[in-house]
Design a protein that fits this description.
alpha/beta; Peroxisomal Thiolase, Chain A, domain 1; Alpha-Beta Plaits; eight-stranded mixed β-sheet; 38 helices; 17% strand; 3-oxoacyl-[acyl-carrier-protein] synthase activity; acyltransferase; PKS_Beta-ketoAc_synthase_dom; fatty acid synthase activity; phosphopantetheine
Length: 1280
């Protein structure tokens, strides 16, 4: 290469590098200035404001939220108020902007016990609920954010909850640190929702929430997070904020903020909480989120060395405004209005006004309008800035600039002529400026000296809603309206809220409501309403709210169990089957057309289409009204396969992932296809050949149903050579098939012996010896096909058991033609594998009654929850409405359905969108929790919590996405050999000792050797997850031992319990979470060696075929438990369950789900009021064993003080001679209780009987608390 060539090559490369550098620099610059979209908002402010709409109503109407001091916080109101300030610790103001019900909280919803809720600052509780509401307002499912890079930025000032007396309240001891730290305000949200972006609590005093928004915007632009919650919260738990500022004479005597007014005489304290959901504008557009406003620019600075620590600094305020404008790429004249800090102080307001005049007031053609929401709410402190943002977002939306209240005249301390700034002394329309959107500035200045300014912009214009145009001129198709809640009471409350919303918003479209609800979290109690119009939706919601149901609606509660899809066989066909689905669902239509094309090609090659169908296409035969043609065997079988395959693909598109598939006769070929055994072309070839060859088998056969068991018929059928059992559909439900004469004779025998009989209308004797003539040619077709191992577990209709390698043999499908259909055994097998939801995929409910009959027989003597049996289509019902009802029934019992993929709202015309409604957010079921100082009570007389509560451990399906943390290896201790029923299990006590000895030895060895691997202890049937389960004593003992070990080695030991009645995970995987994770790279080391996971895959579908046997089951369970990240996990029906503490529903309370059947039958539900309080019996004697010990004494005091127990019998080995017994008795007597102390060894049956006989009949024994025990504890390594 010459020198010139080298030079040219260098210049080309240098030019390319320069262009790439410029591109990167441009990207960095654009990224740094990328607008941030506000996509959701939620708030609570004084004046009963609970939503952004209610805040707008308050400010637009010129109302205020100022009221007297709260009466539910334990404040000594008489001593606190002193107009003359003659006493320390008093205030000359007794009014402010207070949040009503600030102590109210739905602890159950967030998994908190009453004790923890009481010990938790109400600011933490409020931010939890408001964050959930903000995400719902944004159309973001909060439960779907787990493990996402979502940040939380919350402004919070010095929390004062529990300060000074927390240690004197034993009920809160141990929880006050996390309950009262400001850092936990943001961290609590991240913890509750599983968010893994930054969590930052910001305290810059009054500017905290705007600084939080600034930090969130920066984090989004830098890529630290992809979504963020930003806001602030303030609740004054004590009156110290008032007493402090009263001493400085900084408060307005009438409790009103007179921002920028001549009459300004001080600030007024308020409270509130506001949360914004923000993301990059480009992301908001890509996700289809409604943009409420755009954050164009933000800035934060400091006053520095001003003329006082808390004195505002005008030049610093000017600088922060100019910095925000520069960040937004705007000039002052581009902004129309400023929502000011405006606290109503004689010093601060004039300084702020002058800064605004010097920045925004210069070079304008029209004035900058100035206002302050503090005139409506008071100064809500850490929540003040976000209140201004929400006000301005709403003002942009409604085109109105609200009045600033309490302005007698603009402040004479401000030179208003120094710039074009005007105070909003009355409401004004917000005029548009041609060529640009509306814009507003929002200011917050903290008395810490930290200043913040934010510039908001009207959102880009969105395309109009596609709903109205789509609905015009044609009848509306039914759509699913899905509602869910944590409890049945909340479910009804949500329905009531939605009904009220629909009644108030006449323009609200059913489709918009339905779409909005699909974006909500799928909680435990669920309902689905198939509706086509407003009237139907209103009726359905009102019925649900009243505890009743419309006939088409379904309601239920999530319960354990796997999912099976079963495909109908011949006889289920009907004219026009699938026609409505074909028109409504493009996924169905594409799959149907593909199958029809392949089937028709096969049939046309043999002239079946011209000979039998008269040239009519297969598609027309199935979807049209060709009388009688579809009932011909060849077309019936082809049609059923095409419809059922398309129906399954529709289910797939909606997120339904079965754990098992099966089919009845022909339906098993469909099952084999969807399970991956046959590709579509090969499956169509097999179906076409089967139907065609059966069609030409000589007629003359007959079939009949007989109501008796197969074993009863066997001796009779042995005497005939041309009749056989064709199907065992359910216990006592057999079908025979064969030569007509022989069938008639068997039927006559059955009649004579009292069995029900029914002849079947068939063209041929299927599954009988009469099929022999077709077998040779059919075998040749089968031999030409390619078979594969199933990817979804398949139950064989020939054996009634889980299919193995035989399903891939051509000979299996030849036998399949002649052998009986063992459908009852299929159902029994599926139930044995933990299937709790049976979905029939076919044009009619052909299999549903057979499944129900079999389950009724199999479950007759068990305590398991009844399975849900669902027919996805029925011949006499609208196909779309029935599909919604069927999927709804499956979803309400726990089957995963992705309602957001429903085609009605995913197939809108290009460029069109479905509108976003501000639907009512979740109806939290709140109770009052407030930590009171010792000796202080609320005015209502409530104690630490306003009612006694009882809790229990409840197992709930794991909703978390799966972590990829299950890497490396683990030591697995498998104790399942000692489970009840295991070989050589022996006596219960022996099993307990053996199991504990083995596990303890392994744990000690692990600790002694300083093994760094995590430990997984596997048990079987150790815990009761579902109703009717009885724990195995030996396995339960292991569980208890290991739970104690977990406290010694936190985070290092995991417990996983297998189903006592499910022998293996053969043919299935573990289903859990919303994301999949491959476990193939997780080598599991057991105590007896290595177990390889091979190609197992753990994920949401749970639909793979894994290893069989105990080794595979344990390996899969271990991988699932490690991936789940929970310390205790149970596997039931292939799904992960985790323990949670939940309130015990009292008799007659909300939890009466049984009155609503799984099939959606209407019924009355318990009263919508609060659940009855669990009351301790006080009209008799309560006996406490170990009553003179530390634990017994604590319980005794609690029962007397909190529950009003008046008759106690304290029992211990030493009785009255026990140390402290006399003092305890005197203390309890002083509290009003009658106390007896007795010496008794409660392990001595005779001595205990004598003690019980001595209890007075006037106060009979009503309750027993067992608190006795001898402490002989030690760490694991010291135990033997």
């Amino acid at each position: 290469m010459s020198g010139d060539d080298r030079l040219r090559d260098y210049l080309r490369r240098a030019t390319a590098d320069l262009q790439e550098t410029r591109r990167q620099l441009r990207d960095v610059t654009e990224r740094a200035r990328e607008p941030i979209a506000i996509v959701g908002m939620a708030c609570r402010y004084p004046g009963g404001v609970a939503t952004p709409e209610e805040l707008w109503s308050l400010v637009a109407a010129g109302r205020e939220g100022i009221a007297g001091f709260p009466t539910d916080r334990g404040w000594d109101l008489d001593a606190l108020y002193d107009p003359e300030l003659t006493r320390p610790g008093t205030s000359y103001v007794n009014r402010g902007g207070f949040l009503g019900g600030s102590g109210e909280f739905d602890a159950d919803f967030f998994g908190m016990s009453p004790r923890e809720a009481t010990a938790t600052d109400p600011q933490q509780r409020l931010i939890l609920e408001t964050s959930w509401e903000a995400l719902e307002h944004a159309g973001v499912d909060p439960s779907g954010l787990r493990r996402s890079r979502t940040g939380v930025y919350v402004g919070v000032m010095a929390p004062d909850y529990a300060i000074g007396y927390g240690r004197d309240v034993p009920e809160a001891e141990g929880m006050l640190s996390t309950g009262s730290h400001g850092s936990v305000v943001s961290g609590r949200v991240s913890y509750a929702l599983g968010l893994e972006g930054p969590a930052v609590s910001v305290d810059t005093a009054c500017s905290s929430s705007l600084v939080a928004l600034h930090l969130a915007a920066q984090a989004l632009r830098s890529g630290e997070c992809d979504l963020a919650l930003a806001g602030g919260v303030t609740v004054m738990s004590t009156p110290e904020t008032f007493t402090e500022f009263a001493r400085q004479r900084g408060l307005a005597p009438d409790g009103r903020v007179k921002a920028f007014a001549d009459a300004a005489d001080g600030t007024a304290w308020g409270e509130g909480v506001g949360v914004l959901v923000v993301e990059r504008l480009s992301d908001a557009r890509r996700h289809g989120h409604r943009v409420l406003a755009v954050v164009r620019g933000t800035a934060v600075n400091q006053d520095g060395a001003s003329n006082g620590l808390t004195a505002p600094n005008g030049p610093s305020q000017e600088r922060v405004i100019l910095q925000a404008l520069a960040a937004a790429g705007l000039v002052a004249a581009d902004v129309d209005v400023v929502e000011a800090h405006g606290t109503g102080t004689a010093l601060g307001d004039p300084i702020e006004a002058q800064a605004l005049l010097a920045t925004y007031g210069r070079g304008r053609r029209s004035p900058l309008w100035l206002g302050s929401v503090k005139s409506n709410l008071g100064h809500t402190q850490a929540a003040a800035g976000v209140a201004g943002v929400i006000k301005m977002v709403q003002a942009m939306r409604y085109g109105l600039l609200p009045e600033t209240l309490h302005v007698d005249a603009p402040s004479s301390k401000v030179n208003w002529s120094g710039g074009a700034v005007e105070l909003l002394t009355e409401a004004r329309q917000w005029p548009r400026v041609e060529g640009r959107p509306r814009r507003a500035g929002v200011s917050s200045f903290g008395f810490s000296g930290t200043n913040a300014h934010v510039i908001l912009e009207e959102p880009p214009v969105e395309e109009p809603s596609a709903v109205g145009a789509a609905a015009e001129g044609s009848p509306a198709a039914p759509v699913p309206v899905v509602v869910s809640a944590k409890s049945q009471v909340a479910l009804r409350a949500q329905a009531g809220r939605l009904a009220g919303f629909m009644a108030e918003h006449g323009s609200a479209d059913v489709l918009e409501v339905a779409v909005g609800l699909t974006r909500r979290a799928a909680l435990e109690h669920r309902a689905v309403l198939p509706v086509a119009d407003r009237e139907g939706l209103l009726a359905g919601l009102r019925a649900l709210a009243a505890g009743e149901l419309e006939p088409s609606s379904v309601v239920g509660r999530v319960r354990p169990g796997r999912v099976a899809v079963l495909f109908s066989g011949q006889g289920a066909q009907r004219s026009g089957m699938g026609r409505e689905l074909y028109a409504a669902f493009p996924v169905f239509a594409r799959a149907f057309d593909e199958a029809c094309a392949l089937l028709e090609a096969e049939l046309a090659a043999t002239e079946v289409m011209t000979g039998l169908a008269g040239g009519v296409s297969l598609r027309e035969i199935i979807l049209g009204r060709t009388d009688g043609v579809l009932d011909q065997t060849v077309f019936a079988q082809a049609g059923l396969f095409a419809v059922e395959t398309a129906l399954f693909r529709l289910l797939e598109s909606l997120g339904v992932r079965p754990d098992y598939v099966a089919g009845h006769s022909l339906g098993e070929i469909t099952a084999a296809h969807v399970a991956g055994v046959l590709e579509l072309a090969d499956a169509c070839r097999l179906v076409a050949a089967r139907g065609r060859l059966m069609q030409v088998v000589p007629s003359g056969g007959a079939m009949a149903a007989i109501g008796c068991g197969e074993e009863v018929l066997a001796p009779v059928l042995a005497g005939y050579d041309q009749v056989a059992v064709a199907a065992v559909n359910a216990p006592g439900a057999v079908v025979i098939s064969g030569a007509s004469g022989q069938v008639e004779r068997v039927v006559e025998w059955a009649r004579q012996h009292g069995h029900r009989t029914r002849p079947l209308r068939v063209s041929h004797a299927f599954h009988s010896p009469l099929m022999e003539p077709m077998l040779e040619e059919f075998a040749a077709v089968a031999a030409s096909l390619a078979f594969h191992q199933p990817t979804v577990a398949l139950v064989s209709g020939v054996s009634g058991r889980l299919a193995g390698a035989e399903i891939t043999e051509p000979g299996y499908w030849v036998e399949h033609v002649q052998r009986p259909v063992r459908f009852a055994d299929t159902v029994t097998t599926l139930r044995g594998y933990g299937v709790g939801c049976f979905l029939e995929a076919g044009p009619d409910a052909q299999l549903t009654p057979m499944i129900e009959q079999t389950l009724a027989h199999d479950d007759a003597h068990g305590d398991a929850e009844p399975a849900s049996v669902v027919a996805l289509l029925r011949r006499d019902r609208d196909e779309t409405a029935q599909l919604i009802a069927g999927l709804g029934q499956a979803w309400t019992c726990g089957t995963g359905v992705n309602w957001t993929a429903w085609p009605t709202w995913t197939t809108a015309p290009a460029g069109a969108r479905i509108g976003h409604l501000d639907l009512p957010t979740y109806p939290f079921q709140r109770r009052h929790y407030w930590l009171l100082p010792p000796g202080r009570s609320q005015s209502s007389g409530a104690a630490v919590t306003d009612r006694p509560s009882m809790f229990e451990v409840a197992w709930r399906q794991a909703g978390a996405a799966i972590s990829a943390a299950a890497t490396g290896d683990a030591l697995v201790i498998d104790s399942t050999d000692s489970a009840d029923g295991a070989q050589g299990a022996g006596d219960v006590l022996d099993r307990v000792r053996t199991a504990l000895r083995t596990v303890l030895a392994d744990l000690r060895g692990w600790l002694t050797e300083a093994d760094t691997r995590p430990v997984v202890v596997v048990t079987r049937g150790a815990v009761a997850v579902a109703d009717g389960e009885v724990p195995d004593p030996a396995q339960a003992a292991v569980w208890g031992l290991v739970r104690a070990a977990q406290s010694e080695e936190p985070g290092r030991i995991t417990l996983v319990d297998l189903d006592a009645h499910d022998g293996s995970l053969e043919g299935g995987q573990v289903a859990f979470g919303l994301e999949g994770v491959s476990a193939s790279s997780v080598p599991i080391a057991t105590a007896n060696g290595e177990v390889s996971l091979g190609d197992a895959s753990l994920g949401r579908s749970g639909s793979g075929v894994g290893r069989s046997g105990d080794e595979g089951e344990v390996a899969d369970a271990v991988a699932a438990a490690l991936a789940c990240g929970e310390p205790e996990v149970a596997l039931r029906g292939g799904r992960l369950w985790v323990p949670r503490l939940e309130r015990v529903a009292s008799p007659g309370s909300e939890d009466v789900a049984s009155s609503w059947s799984a099939a959606g039958g209407a019924g009355r539900v318990g009263d919508a009021g609060e659940e009855p309080v669990a009351v301790w019996p006080v009209d008799g004697t309560t006996l406490i064993t170990g009553g003179t010990g530390g634990l017994g004494a604590l319980v005794a005091r609690h029962l007397v003080v909190e529950h009003g127990v008046r008759h106690l019998l304290l029992v211990s080995r030493r009785g009255a001679d026990a140390p402290g017994a006399a003092e305890l008795r005197g203390e309890l007597a002083g509290l009003g209780a009658e106390v007896s102390v007795a010496a008794c060894d409660v392990a001595d049956r005779d001595a205990l009987a004598v003690l019980l006989e001595g209890i007075s009949g006037a106060h009979p024994l009503r309750a027993v608390v067992h608190a006795a025990g001898v402490v002989d504890d030690g760490v694991i390594t010291s135990l033997s």
